[in-house]
Amino acid sequence: MSMNKNAPIAIFDSGVGGLSVFKEIEKLMPNENLIYFGDTARVPYGTRSAETIRRFVKSDLDFLFRFAPKLIVVACGTASCVGAPVLEEECEHFTSVISPSAIAAAKTTKSGRIGVISTAATLKSGAFENKIKELLPAAEVYTKAAQMFVNVVENGWIEEDNEIANAVAKEYLKDLKKQHVDTLILGCTHFPLLSKVIQKQMGEDVTLISSGYETALAAKMDLEALGLRSDSTVAGTKKFFVSDDLESFCQLGAVFLGHAIDRDEAELVEVG
């Protein structure tokens, strides 16, 4: 990869969820050039076999390497853990959503009782649990696959008083509430958009760890450690690529980013 300070940061996800990471990176590092790739033709990754996920991750990286990025940010929990062997082999520098969130949870918890909600594939890999236990061996980690939260977000049902969001959250979170966790990792990049709904169900005593924010913070620290922060004094460029349905991506993307995506900045591409 390029060692040019003004080379872009490349962020990728299986769909639109990674825009929650993109948004936090944009906020923390406004002068960086950013590229986002959403593999919307093959979403979701969370229900696929490990072999298929790794093949997808390899083709995603091959596409992003065309832009000679200085850092790859894997804004997808499933790609981060199941695709780890490919990432380690292919990338010189990458930041993923697993470690930053696990580190934040281990630092935050007072009782050592930590909850994780994510996709089934991410939880099956044990990546969050392993990382937390590595940092905090006595921790009790309770997990719950919460795939339907993705659909809730993508339908725009994210308001605190939305009946559907609250009904789904109540069902998913009841077991974690019974375990009296004091910290909950939102281990899928869609989930921070439901943080108000989730907080309401879990109660104010539970600290939510947003994978989007923690990953963006880790990316910033990684670039600083490498001496690769941009020295530009102007706002960075933004470019969005998707592998299917550009129109839907732009509409849904606005929900994640809190502002419209400029159509000049978005492009449909073929990968894999």
Give an overview of the whole structure.
This protein is α/β, with parallel strands linked by helices. The protein folds into two domains: 9-96 and 214-268, Rossmann fold; 98-211, Rossmann fold. Helices cover 45% and strands 17% of the residues. Strands 4-3-1-2-9-10 form a six-stranded parallel sheet, sandwiched between helices. The longest helix has 16 residues, at 163-178. The protein starts with 8 loop residues before the first strand and ends with a strand.
What topology does this entry show?
Elements: E1 9-13, H1 19-28, E2 34-38, H2 50-64, E3 71-74, H3 77-82, H4 84-90, E4 94-96, H5 98-108, E5 113-118, H6 120-125, H7 127-135, E6 140-145, H8 148-154, H9 163-178, E7 183-186, H10 195-202, E8 207-210, H11 211-226, E9 238-242, H12 246-257, E10 266-268
Parallel strand pairs: 1-2, 1-3, 2-9, 3-4, 5-6, 5-7, 7-8, 9-10
In short:
This protein is α/β, with parallel strands linked by helices and 272 residues long.
Strand order of the largest sheet: 4-3-1-2-9-10
Rounded mean pLDDT score: 94
Q: Strand fraction band?
A: 15-25%
The CATH class of the largest domain is identified as Alpha Beta
User: What would the CATH topology of the largest domain be?
Assistant: Rossmann fold
Q: What is the helix/strand order?
A: EHEHEHHEHEHHEHHEHEHEHE
CATH architecture of the largest domain: 3-Layer(aba) Sandwich
Gap between N and C termini, in Å?
20 Å
Annotation field: number of helices: 12
